[in-house]
Amino acid sequence: MKACTTEKTLQERTRGTAGPKILVFSCRWCSGIGADDAGRKRLSMPTGFRCVEVECIASIDPDIILKAFSEGAEGVAVFGCHLGGCRYNRANHAAAKRMAMAATLLETVGIGAGRLLTSFGTAHEGYQFAELMRRFSQRIETLPTLTRKEARDWRLGG
Amino acid sequence: MTFVDTVACLLCRCHGEIDDVVDFDRLQLQLADDGRVDSVEVCDALCLGDSLANLARKMGADNGSRTLIAGCSALARGDELVDRLTAHGIDPGRVKITDIREGCAWIHADQPKEATSKAADLVRMGITALLHRQTSPEVEIEICPRVLVIGSGPAGMAAAVALGSYGVSVVLVESTGKLGGMLNYLSRVAPGDRTTEEIQEPLVEAIRKVPNIQVHLGTRVDKIEGSAGNFEVFLSGKNGETRLETGAIIVATGAKPVLPRGMYRYGELAGVISGMEMEKIFKDGMPAGDTVFIQCVAVRNQARPYCSAVCCPASLKNAIRLKESNNKVDVTILHRDVMSPGRHLEELYRCATAAGVGFIRFDPDDPPRVEGNDKVAGVRVADALSGQKRLIEAERVVLATPLEPRENSAIPLSADNHGFYTVQSFLHTVETTVPGLFVCGSARWPVMVDGALTQGRAAAAKALDLVSRPKYRASGLIGFQGTRFACAQVSQKTCTGCGNCVAACPFDACHLEKTKEGLRAVVNPVCCMGCGSCAAVCPNQSAALPEMASISMARIVENAFAGRPLRCRCADTQGSAANQ
Amino acid sequence: MTLDTVRKIARDLLERNTVKGVLGLAADDAGVMPRVFDTPNAVAVLVLEPKWVLAKITMTVMAREPDDYRLAVVCRGCDERALIELGKRNRIDPGRLHLIGVACSEAQAKQCLCQRPWPSRVDAGEKAVGADLSQSETIRQYLGADRPVRLERWREAFSRCIKCYGCRNACPVCACDTCKLEQDVWAKQGEIAPDMLTFHLMRSMHVADACVACGACQDACPVGIPLLLLQLPMRNVLRRSYNYEAGTETERLSPLLSNYIDEPSHGISIPNWTDSLEEKPWDLIS
User: Fold this and answer.
1) Domain count of the fold of chain C
2) Which residues in chain A have their CB less than 8 angstroms from residue B531's CB?
3) CB atoms inside a 10 Å sphere around CB B197
4) At B276, is the secondary structure helix, strand, or coil?
């Protein structure tokens, strides 16, 4: 699949930017392999994100999402296999439901549901992964910063 | 095994692929500052030359050490390196691969400074994961060296014969009074116009002759309990009730043909028959008279939105035979699509057209109408291609109906939207979500006799893999590409018996047990696939994947954006699930 | 009137030995406290005010009594819902309980922002209409304003927290013996006010699908954080997307536990790989 023009433009726009801090949880099957594929294709992405690989996104407790924001993440992305493609008997459906609940809570307190991205992809979608990371980073950048002004006291709560 | 609470770091340059972008000097300095790091070494390429053997030797000399390898991704060479270390006798739990190539150097080639910070963060996350990692105890199951085959159609018989020929003890259970399943009702088998006898007889003969195949006719399965290697099956039949122990189960219960009740004047007009009735007529002799076949009856509609795959080939087969017996007979097939994929079925279709069978496409919104008073006179159809309405005179109308799933509450398998048993995925075609339970033939999806035979043999091969050894490691049942997070465990000390994990487990591997202290959840390590659903819904971390418990993830997250080394918190691991 | 009815029912149950005890509120010189009335005469001091969610105490009482002990509980709507949720989580055996259903007044419902101020069977009191949430100023402030304003308000509220654990202790469905909120990784020892995300929001998340909107958390909070409001939008999502309201069904488990997205009346649209960046409009209350 050829890189589309939108991707190139976004690549140029986000080149050289550190990118906001994003914690990415991806399952080690489809979406993890997709992320790896993006790496193998050497697609350029903003540097602000860190990946944690889990067995299946169903194992992601919303508590961890909250912990991520507490530790300075400005966005959290949860990437799983396509609905219908989960090898753990549709466990990604349950994950989607829990993430929607977490997003509701984040929206309630004003952190914003847009900071929690839940998405599903397959192993050959390296381009999609890169595109998604760039667009999500861009979107986070347009939001007001969560952390407080003093560099030392950057925790979200307290 | 008690490990020291520091790790050795090995940074792989990947011959410049990584350290062209990531500044290894800075990285080494940062890691040197980290109290959790014992030593930092750099190598050119761990996968080449002696590097791996040297590492194995070093780790072999100090059994308490753990190593973090930062280099390419697990998928690239990482998993392979761990396998090679294992082959050298190093416990894979002592090694962790952190990806700083596909996940860092290669995607941030234009930002070396940021890439270096990111690499440092990633390595620190890896160190945390390694330090907090607990391993699931390996569970070895003793395998009962027997396979139960449920159903004696072509799939079941092929499975039984394949297994029997390897000397495996097979119990073949059939609910009716004779072997053969669908083969008893078909006239011929397409492609190739084979008789059912030439397929059925050798199988039945083999089953009769092989002493380790036991057949129970007129017997049903009432209940299946237990797990892979140790199923307990309750049967009932003319011999009364029996209990059977078996290591693997092959479900070959097939599917049942749908009767076209209320469709196209079936049951109302003489001469309107179902596809199966046509097979019976062929068995008794050669039918005569102009015939019209109508495809897609009672299927590909709202109630059954699927294609049953076998009905088009069946009609093609029968249409050809009619024409070949008497060329003057008019045979027409009214269809929506003609499903004849693959070399042999394509040829079947061409054979039909060459033989003079007529094909008319109709629109599902304007289906054909059967005409006649007390018997069939003809069929009026709107030809979708030409737009013309035509009346085809005929004495017989054959309604091609689908196969639909059989309901069997004794089989503990989940079914898809249409009711057919679900398989693990497109790559595990006969394995189900229950380890040790395999499905083949039309119980899995409507399939022709050849397909059923092949699937039966495939299921036999999978079952053979399980029952051919006296012991089997539970983690080997889980999947390909090696298991990294293994099985869940529930801490009996902190579990409150709320049942969330039991409800959330996609494989029914978790159940509640009454203990002195109250209800406690227990995970069956044989059925557990290690997905972690239980861990996510447990309110107090009692259920956890030991390799990556909630606390580990929290600590990893702390390290993700710290930008600096954090104090080691190994005290966390004392409360983990695996220690209970 | 309602009080007389309840006392009469309680006396009858004890006289006929249908139950061994009646759990309700007792008023004496020391004040009003929950008590298990075990004789018909003792019921004379039973009162119905103030609002006191008795579900958790029910759990404690049942745990210490033998298996054949039957207990009657003076139950408001939220009590009953909490008991049902506890029953689903195997914390109590609903078969050993006899509920005396008391409907709340309109004034009480307004105070609690309760939409369902009645138990499934009303033995005493009249069913009142549920509170109109659009009239609540607190809701407007904390759930209605723009995101940055909301965030500041919530931050300010949580900054007052003194980590008394009152919210957790009072919550009737919060019933783990070992609690994550006492672990250092989520709530650092000595850190006051605790981290908003890993303490308050985590607690809120844990009871998301079990919350019966009793308001006990909010009532218990000594610094007046509007904790009930945290749960209302999540309860709304469960109702809209799955037609699920905690405590109204005795058999059906939380939709968050099952793997199928096609629960009854599912309203969540699941995004594809690249579509998930579209921002959906959020309406927290309706």
Assistant:
1) 2
2) 55-56, 58-59, 88, 91
3) 11
4) helix
- Using DSSP bridges, classify how beta strands C31-37 and C21-28 pair: parallel, antiparallel or unpaired: antiparallel
How many whole angstroms separate alpha carbon C81 and alpha carbon C172? Answer: 10
Q: Do C119 and C165 lie in a common domain?
A: no
Query: Within a domain: residue C281?
Result: no
- B95: CB partners within 8 A, 6+ apart: B59, B66, B67, B68, B69, B81, B82, B85
> Do residues C213 and C228 touch, judged by C-beta distance below 8 A?
yes
Gap between the terminal Cα atoms of chain B: 16
Burial class (CB in 10 A: 0-12, 13-18, 19+), C64: exposed
* A18-141: CATH number: 3.40.50.960
pTM: 0.84
Answer yes or no: are the C-beta atoms of C251 and C240 closer than 8 Å.
no
Which residues of B fall within a CB distance of 8 Å from C186? Answer: 554
How far apart CA A76 and CA B238 sit, in angstroms, is: 62
The better pLDDT of the pair A81, B396 is held by B396
Please give the structure tokens belonging to residue A7.
Answer: 């991707």
What ipTM does the predicted assembly reach? 0.90
Query: Any chain A CB within 8 A of the CB of B99?
Result: yes
Report the pLDDT averaged over residues B212-228: 94
The answer to whether residues B447 and B441 touch, using CB atoms and an 8 Å cutoff, is yes
For residues C164 and C46, membership in a common domain is answered with no
Question: How many whole angstroms separate alpha carbon B190 and alpha carbon B169?
Answer: 32
d(CA B450, CA B154): 8
Beta-ladder partners of A116: A76
Q: Quick count: other Cβ atoms within 10 Å of Cβ B262?
A: 10
DSSP assignment letter at C221: -
> Which residue out of B20, B77, B98, B111 would a mutagenesis test of the A interface target, given it has the greatest number of A Cβ atoms within 10 Å?
B111
Lowest mean pLDDT among B18-27, B340-349, B524-533: B524-533
Residue B330 and residue B395: Cα distance in Å, rounded? 10
Residue with structure tokens 């909107």? C213
What DSSP character marks residue B179?
T
The verdict on C95 and C182 lying in the same domain is no
For C184, residues 6+ apart whose C-beta sits below 8 A from its C-beta are none
Q: Is C163 on the interface with A (CB under 8 A)?
A: no
Q: Which residue segment(s) compose the domain that C73 sits in?
A: 2-131
pLDDT of A6 strictly over 70: no
- Assign 3-state DSSP to chain C and report helix, strand, coil percentages, each to 5: 40, 10, 50
Structure tokens at B246: 């078996």
B500–C178 C-beta distance less than 8 A: no
Residues C235, C248: Cα–Cα separation, whole Å: 12
Residue that finishes a domain, picked among C131, C165, C198:
C131
Burial class (CB in 10 A: 0-12, 13-18, 19+), C5: middle
Residues of C in contact with A91 (CB under 8 A): 259
pLDDT for res B434: 85
The whole-number pLDDT of residue A3 equals 39
Nearest to C284 by CA among C114, C148, C143: C143
Residue labelled with tokens 């507490």 = A70
First to last CA, chain A: 48
In a domain, C170, yes or no: yes
Per CB-CB distance under 8 Å, the chain C contacts of A97 are: 255-256, 261, 268
Cβ(A126)–Cβ(A43) under 8 Å? yes
pLDDT in tens, C88-139: 999 999 999 999 999 999 999 999 999 999 999 999 999 999 998 888 899 9
Q: Extract the tokens encoding B210.
A: 């092989």
| Beta-bridge partners for A24 | A51, A77
pLDDT in tens, B234-279: 999 987 899 999 999 999 999 999 999 999 999 999 999 999 999 9
Q: Is residue C240 part of a domain?
A: yes
Alpha carbons C182 and B547: distance in angstroms, whole number: 23
pLDDT band at A13 (very low <50, low <70, confident <90, very high): low
